[in-house]
Each structure stands twice: as structure tokens, then as C-alpha cells.
Amino acid sequence: MIELRNITKRFGEVLANDGVNIKVTPGTIHAIVGENGAGKSTAMRIAYGFYTADSGEILVNDRKCEIRTPHDAIAQGIGMVHQHFMLIEPITVAENIVLGAEPGSAFSLDLKQAAIEIRKLSDEFKLAVDPNATIDTLSVGQQQRVELLKALYRRAQLLILDEPTAVLTPQEVEEFFTILRGMREQGKTIVIITHKLSEVLAISDNVTVMRDGRVVGDLKTKETNAAELARLMVGREVLLRVEKPEAKTGAVVLGVQNLSIAGRDKSARVDKMSFEVRAGEIVGVAGVEGNGQTELIEALAGLIPGSHVSGSIAFEGKDITRLDARKRKELGIAHVPEDRHRRGLLLDFSLAENTILGVHYRKPAVTGVGSIMLDQAGIQSRAAQVIRDFDVRPPNPELPVRSLSGGNQQKLIIGREFGLPPKLLLVSQPTRGVDIGAIEFIHRKIVAMRDAGCAVLLVSAELEEVTALSDRLLVIHNGKIVGEVDPKVVTNEEIGLMMTGGHA
Amino acid sequence: MGRTRRNYKHAAPNGALKRMKLLRELLFPLIAVICAFIVGGIVVLLIGDSPFETYRLLIGSAFSWPDGIGYTLFYATPLIFTGLAVAVAFRCGLLNIGAEGQLYIAAFATAWVGIKLGGVIIKNPVTGQIVNSPIAHLPGVILLPLCCLVAVGVGAIWGAIPGLLKAKFGSHEVINTIMLNFIAVALVSYFTQYHYKIPGDAILQSAPISSGAHIARLGKIIPGLPQRIPLNLAFVFAIIACILVYIFLWKTKWGYEIRATGQNPSAAEYGGISIRKQIILAMAISGGLAGMVGINEVLGYRYRYYDGFSDNYGFTGIAVALLGRNHPAGVFVAALLFAVLQRGGVPVDAFTQHVSKDIVQILQALVILFVAAEAMFRGPLKKFGFMRSAKV
Amino acid sequence: MRQIFTISLLFSTIRLATPLVLAALGGLYSERSGVINIALEGLMLAGAFTAASITFYAHSPFVGVSAAMLAGALVAYLIALACIRFKANQVVTGTAINILFLGLPAVLSGALFLSSGSTPQIPKENLLPALYKFMPSFVPHWRILTDVSVMSLLALVIVLVTRYVLYRTPFGLRLRAVGENPEAADAAGVSVNRFRYAGVILSGALAGIGGAYLSIGQSSLFTRNMTAGRGFIALAALIFGKWRPVQTMLACLLFGFADALTIQMQGVAKLPSGEDIPVQFVQMIPYIVTIVVLAGFIGQSRAPRALGIPYEKER
Q: Touching check for A108 and chain C: CB below 8 Å?
């Protein structure tokens, strides 16, 4: 059906795809697996014309094709459901579906005809979507089915699905897979991008494994197993064995009682969570992304407006629920945010200026009467310290942070936050998009903080990372803590089951 | 985007790095000005005059002593203030299109203090009837600083309104500042017309302010500069404002907070900075700077409020800030450039056959357009390998 | 009071609202596609000057209006080029265009007509006619036919056409999609930039016609800065009308009514103290209304989500 040959794509200095070859057989479900940043989405976005490859070629039905825009891809019978839905909220399902392929003439948009056709498709594939509803009234699962309809309406023969299950509940996932199997029976070809091995094994016929922008495995699903796939995918088992001494836990530093956090739409993103973190221990939070981790950490750091938060947060026995981010930082709560570009850095500011973000108003960053003036010498010495202790390269405090690599940017943030010095460390996705050398370095630093008596709360989408680093592991699902396990004895399967709402 | 593998080519020492950055900062404005002059020259040519002669008149007249230089610096004064105003807001990620309204309302308020607290009695010259009587008669040493403070303060309040609206309701500052411009103009025109005009005066202007509130013309200080040239102490204030804005933005914690908010509000919030506070603060400072135009206009030039005095200073301020890369030093230079053009408009009107002084506005607009669309130069420059060496 | 609320007030309202409706609808096309149009003022001036100049030479108001439309579209094309192709800041670009058309007509009129900023008077028979011109001779000369310009009817037609185009044609659907969520539109195979160009150019054409009505409809020549803020009032009406065609027209009529009222009140209505009612306060109404609406006090006016954001994607 579709074949990518020798596709290479660079973003700036990042090599996202490096000579990628993928061949998808018609009438099959083909899984592409890999970790975050392995280049799966990039390859498929190239197939859909969202990006243009720097080199390489695309074949559709064994013929070479120029796919420069999504428009070209649609003409070739390719449809794509993106990880972030491409839907326009204030308009109806029907309008969304026909957009770009409208029925009727240029002078008249025949939405009635469209609605009939959509209903027919919806029945055929058992999608149960109302064409006249507006998008913002639909659940996430329904929105995803609208995305499927969009592709089907355009008579797509090949459907590319980017992490389709990331936003679904386990029940919804089951339903969704049934729909996909139905589509395969109707002759459609499906490519599913995922990093969940259980899903690969459950649904696919063939599987391509990617790592670091390259294809590292091409297998028949029947002939492989989770262990083999995991080994191919990760390829760094050795690295993740973190050497750490037995934890010497002290007093409770963070106490969370009945914490609930409402999202923008007022639904509970975190639902009555209670737990505590003691000095000298690392408590890990495992869970499928989007199950409340982001909100939990941001609320603990004081970044979510009080009106959205209920329950209580205590730090060293004192209630801090109503304190703002600055006050919490002053108490010694450091925060390594999950998205360093959005939250953690001022990209066009210099490295030195970034080392004082959050402490820019107190010594040693300021000097003089009323602590108004920035103290250049103080800032420089702090920058020099972070650069030295955390091996930030290149070691030039005047460089804009934008020009650093992801790993060095992350080391800068960690250096800044660890230098507070903190009593409580909130760490979210500490090694996302970071090179292997830096991962090891960052892990060692986190363990060192714990050994120095700091309480650490660690969130990571990498299961191996949380199990390797944590002393205790909380598993969350749907904004709730569904269990606490000992990372030394638990198996990935057990955690996986809990993460998806099953019980251990 | 995946694991990054890169080799570092940032081995350049700091000095060279800074020089390259400076070069890049200067390059685009320079190209934009040149392009604007080329397009403007084509317009002049089409109209039937010589572009070279026109430009000679336009630029040449600014450098004579004392009139050329005196007037050019006088014209530059309000542009420095409005340019700084736009630049400070821009550093916080805000577009202040409202400097025009801020400077009007501030200028009027300044005149109001100069009249009401300066002991000025507004009488009907025919009947002798008192139309408006003063509240107090303050001595100059108090009145003058008070007038200056009011110029800044009222400008700041008018500027803070759209900041507050954005912080509180999230409504867009661009639309609100535009709307507030019109409201300011209508308000001051109402007060001037109905309460502070000398009855029978054909011109829409207030009564003169108390002489105690006049600030010195620089002619008093600088030998050879006649006092008829209205260049006054406000120009010195403008230079001081440039320095203070620089220190504020880059050397104080408050400036850091404003710049951090402008660069990445989410990260600023993460750094314990209240974005709402910064938005209001930046807009207030911006308005205060725009308000200082009132010092030049009312206290240093006309000694009264004159309705419609602003020659689009607020909007030209956008051009000044943009061309000056939102840096006080750049603003100063850009304001001088625009002042040169403004000064040159007069001889262009008088000595060319067809072209009028309005060519100045065309050039201003073209400069803004070319600076705003600087991306168009990026492609060609890259081709000549310029950008690579200048990239930091 | 009876002296104020006359039938003339109604016609005066329609007359004053007409250029606002045309410009505001122009703004609607641009903003619905996701491009802020602060330049309506400048585009109207471009149209007004072009219409007056061309009509002066061609002796036909219809040639004049067509030329104004083209001029507006051409200037808008430049805006689109800067904002879409070169990702220039939309507000800054709009401001530049506004300044440009304070200067350009003045320079051109100086060269063409040896005047400082205005065009020569255009004879009455060459101005845009009232509606009765198009009626068969047996129709009586009702005031609605003699007092209302053909342009007012055109504006009404364009409002209805716009409503149809926006909600009932593929073009409208795509335009709205591009302004709401360009990435989604792109993924659906719609060329974001093409529709943004179309939106901006259409806005120029309509604002140009609106300007033409000012110079060769309401008056008989172009004068310096004759729009006097109408472009911004049109923008205000667009916001007040929640970026919807019919509501926007109603907002324009409201603002036109406020304007008509100030004219009608001059010398007629007095405050109890015997003073004239200051016109300035009535003039402020549209601006204050806009601020209040934007703050969310009178219903929620939600802008197209991608308004003002250039569409960039990594390629």
C-alpha cells in the first residue's frame, strides 16, 4: 500500500529520521513502535505531506509519488488521525468532516447530503457519531471517531493513527480496536503509531520498531514477543540500572490530603489524591500520560489557580495550599517542569539569566538598597557554578539558551533547581528528549539529592525510569492513585495492568 | 524531537559574539531604511521630481546650526518618549497602539495643573466674567515638578487601563488602546472646548498655563542657540529616560520580570512572576513615558494645551521602537532619524515642484513595513552566506 | 425632542452607516481568515482617494468605485504579502498602511491636482446616485428612493451575500476553518495561506468601496484624512457584531445612529443648563461599547481563535 524508502529528515540540527524504510502491506494493521522522540510521528507526518523529507522517496501502490501537502496525500487515499485532534471546535461534526472535500457546488454547500453520507459511514463502521453535534460537546472518544470519519469520508484506503489510545480509557481502547479490526475486514490498511507494547501485540499484523530516528526492527507480530520488542525499542537496559544505596528516610516533607484539581472544563483531572513524601526518599508516579500527572505537579508547585484546587497540601507540617509559586520556592520546593521549552526556560535569554529564573529577586542575584539592582557578579558566579557542577556545554554563560542541545538545557534547569537548595524536589519527565549521556548524569544527580536528605517526587512516562529510580511507586489512573507498589519487586506487567485501570 | 546529537561551534569568544549580534541588530534596520528610501524615491520620480534633490533637501536641512539641529532635536523629543513607551510594552509582549491617547490625556492634565494650581483665572475677554477660577496658586518650585509628575502619572493611569483590562478580562490590548485613543481625544477636546478655553478664542486651545510651570528652553543654557527655537529641557529628560529605561529593563529585577514575561509568560509564571502584575506595570510605565510628551509640548513649547497637537507621535513611536529594535539606544537613533525627516519636510514643501512634505509620512510607513517584514531579506542574505556568520 | 427624532434621522443613520458596513464586512473576511485588520482606515482612504481621482478623470462614478475596489484589493495584497508570506506583525503592518495613506493621497493630489491634500470638486451628476435613478419613471419619488444611495443598497446586498457565503458555501467553511484552527484546515487539505490571502484581499476591496462612498457618495471630493476614524469604528462594529455579518451590520447601524444623532442635535437639543450637548460624548459611544463588549460584560464576543497568529509549520 505505502512504502517509505530511505527517508531522512532534519529539524535544525536534530536528525529526526535517518534513512527510514517502512513497507506497509495492503489490508493489514501495521504498528510502528518506539519511545518518545524515536521518529515515528515524523516518518508518518512525512507520509501524510505535513513535513517534506530532505531525501528519500514515497511509493503508494508501488508507484513513486510526490506528497508535498496533506492535499496530495488525501488524493492518494491516505488519511491521518493526529495525536492532537485536528478538529475545529465551534462548528459541527458534519462541517468538520466535509472541510476540504465539500459536497455540492462551489456556490452551495450541501450539508444535508453530507449528513446522510456521514450517517451511512458511521453505521457501516459502527462509529455512532451524530453529524449535527458541535465538536465541543463531544467526548474525547467521540472526537476521535470524528477524525476516523474524516479520513473515511475522503475514501482513504490507508489510515495513519498517531498514538490513538493515549487519550482513551481502557474500555474505549477495546471498542476502538474492534472498530479497527472491522475496518481491516473491509479492506482498509491501518498504520498505528504507539509506544505501548501490549497494544502492538493485541492489534497488529506487522510491526516496525524505531529508535533514535532509525528503523531497528521489522517483524511479524505473531513471531515476536514483548521482551524482544522492548529490547529493540529501548536498547539501553544497562543504562537504566541505577546504583543507589538503601534509602534513609526521615520526616514527612510533603503531605497531600484529598487533593482534587479541576481542569478548564471543570472536570476533575486529579481526584481526591492523598499521599506523602519523606525526606531522603524518591517517590515515583507511574501512569499513562494525561492521567493527572501534569496537573498534580503543577498544583504542588503553585502554578494552578487556587480556585481549581481543593484539599490540602502540607510542607513540613505547614499548610501551603494557598501559597503562590514564589512563596513555595522560598520554602525550598524546587520544580523541574515536564516541558522545558514551555515552562522551564527563557529561550532567548542568556544561560546566565536563565540560572536566576525564580530566584532573580533575592541574593545572590540582586544587590544594593532594597535589593532592586541585579548583581552581575552574583549572577555570573551562580551561572559558573551551575555550568561547572552540572556540566553544561558549551560553558559560555552569555549564550542564548536556545542554542544549547536538549540535554544541556535540561542540565541547566536541573542545576538551577538543585541549587536552591531544595527540601522537596518535584521532577517531571527529567530525561525527555535528552541524550543518553545526560540521562545517566541526571539520574545520578537525582539520587545524590535524595541521599543528601531531599524528598523527591518523580513523574515519568518512561516506566523503566520510575521503577529504576524510585523507592516507592504510586500508580495513577484517571486522576486517582490506584495503588502503591515496591519497585524492587513489582513487574512491568503488574504496573501496566494498574496503569490501565485493571487491578494488580 | 528526539535525541540531539550536535557538535558545538560556539567556540567564539564573548567579544566576537557580541559584535556579531550587534551587527545583526544593525543590519536589518539599515536595509529596511535603505529599501524605504528606494521605494520612496520611485514615488518621487513618478511624480516628476528628482529623488536625489528631494532627499538632499529632506536630510540636508537638519544639520545646519542652530535652526536645523535645534529643531531636529526638538522634533525628536516626543518621538523618543513614544518610542520608549512602545518599546517597554513590547518587551513585555504587549503592543501599545495607545501612546497617542496617553500623551493627549497627559498633556491636557499637565496643562490643567498649570492652570488650576498655577493661579490662572480664565475670563471672558469681552465681558470680564470669570469662566473658570483656580484652586490654588502654587509657586513654581512646587508647581513645575507637580506638572511633570502629573504628565507621567496621568499617562501611566491611562496606559494601565488596557493593561488592567487584559490582566483581568483577557481582552486584547491592541483593540482597547485604539479605542482609548479616541476616547482620550474626545475627552480632552470636550474639556478644552467647554471649560478651559478663553471664550471667543477661535483656536481650540486652553488658556495659557502659569509662567511658573514653564521649563527652560535650552537656548538659555547653550550659547548660540536662540531662545525662539523650542528645544527645551524635555530633550534632556528624554535622554535621561533612555538611560533609565535601559537600567530598568536590563539592570533591575523588575526589568528582568517584565522581559521574562514578554519572552515566555509560562516560564515567567513558573519563575514565580505574576504575569498580570507585569502586564499592568509595563502598560503603566509605557503610558507614563508617552505622557512625558506633555512636558515637552505644554511646559516647554506652547505653554498651553493645544487640541490636536500631536503629529501622530504615538503611531510614529511604533516605527521608532521597531526600527530601534526596542532598545533605548536604538530608539534614540531612530527618533533622530524620523526627526530629521520631519524637519526636512518643510524645505521639501517649499523647494520642490510637485512633492509635498507628506512624503515624510510615506517614508515612515515604508520603514515600518520593511522592518516588520524583515523576513523578506533573510532569504537573499542567507544566499550570500551572511546569516550563517551572523547567527548566534 | 420631536425635532430630533425625525424621518431624516433614519436616512441620515443609513447614510452614515453605509461606509461602516462596507468596511466592517471587509474586516470580517480578513479576521475570519485569521488576519487582524487594523488597516481598514488606510484601505478606506485608499479607496476614497482613488474613487475621487478616477471619477474626476473618467466622469463615471461606477468606474470610480471599481477603481477604488481594485486599489483597496491591491493595497490589501501588500498587507497579505507582508503578514502571510513574510510573517510580519499584523498590527504593525496595519499601522504602517494607515500612516502610508495619510501621506500618499496628499503627495499624489499635490502632483496631480496641485492641491495640498484634496481632489477637485466632482460635478453632482458624476457622484454616486440615489436609488431613484434606477427606478422606472412612474415610481413616485419617495424619500427612501431620493435620500438613500445606491451604495446603501449594495451594502445590504453584500451583507446578505456574505452571510450566505460564510455559512453556506465551501469557501466560507474553509475561511472560517482557517481562522479557527489553521493546522486542522491544513490537515484537511485546505491551503491556509491561499484562504488568508483571499480574506485579506476581499477586505481591501470592500473597505475600498466603503471609502469610495465617502468621497463620491457622501461628499464630492477627497479631503485629507476624510475617514476620521471610521475604519476603527468599523473594526469596533465588527467586534460588537461578534464577527457575524448581520450582527455587524446592526452594530454599524447603531454607531451610524449615534453619529447621526450628534449631527441632528447640534443647536437643537440643550442641556438643562442651556448648554449644547457636547458632541464628544456621543462620539465616544462606539469606543466605550467596544471596550465593554471585549471585557465580556455584554455577552461574550469570541474572536476567531487563530486571529493574529501567523501560520507557521516546520517543513
A: yes
